Amino acid sequence: MDASAPQALLCLCRAGFEPELAAELTERAALAGIGGYARAARDDGYALFHAADPDDRPGRALPWRALVFARQKTQLIAELDGLDPRDRLTPVLSALEGRGRYGELWVEHPDSEAGRPLSGLARAFGNALRPALRQRGFLTPHDDPARPRLHVCLLAGDHLLLSRSEPGDGAPWPQGIPRLRLHADAPSRSALKLEEALLSLLSARERETLIKPGMRAADLGAAPGGWTWVLTRHHLHVTAVDNGPLQPALHDTGLVEHLRADGFRWQPERTLDWMVCDMVEQPRRVAARMATWFREGWCRHAVFNLKLPMKKRWQETRLCLDLLADEAGVPLEVRARQLYHDREEITVFASAGAG
Prior knowledge:
alpha/beta
């Protein structure tokens, strides 16, 4: 029932993108000199990567912030299957014996058709497990984010995965999903994508130093204005470029200039602080155009989406990110992730001076 899992990673992802996550983990590990194999099944919402050599440390070689398709990354402790629903606590406590002390407990489940019905059980089991862990000394009396976090991932009523995440090397939200609510004034649901991108891809210090009132930005393919609206909420002056109409309320902010033009052809007259782009175009064409913006010095920072094909999505992601780096002509800080509010796409943050 208790299968020890030394040097294995557990990563959660969007259901349907398990093969892409498995391919990414395997390739990135190989580039770091770590052999191994990934275990994943489509629509499960997670993947496991097992290092071939027990002395390898894939967790260190594959930091969470560098992964594109992983919403959450943890180090597997044990896989417990065939649990008695009348007593799940005893096997979990036994598996954690001698495994150290943790600062927090998160009981989660994959964001999949099979996993979502487990949300009620996850809450109930967490309420029962937390005091039992504290009584045994496995969990600090109060939450301590400076210590490793204990994760319990329920795959079924009788099947779970125990894992841990290190401070700063995992998503700061359960399941790797930030809980954002669509504001009533937002022109479209796409506003959530940019809000999540700024929250996920930038550190708190970067959000404070790189996004300041009075900065200037461009939104390419802006209509109906979801991303423009987010930028104005940060008090940026925005040139919204699109042949389509914007939500009329955006003009009332006094921060928006609407240019009816092709976002792929337009260029600013001077360097802007930010450029954002959520246009439906071929991903390589988008990557090449974004590279042009940096090569020509038209912006300092950018957030944009790459719409992925139905097949070979990890390969296309890697190709597009390489193309961006190769053609930008300047050193770039690049971070990419498939966000919770993304669908068949990934979101990229690129900066010529993130610091």
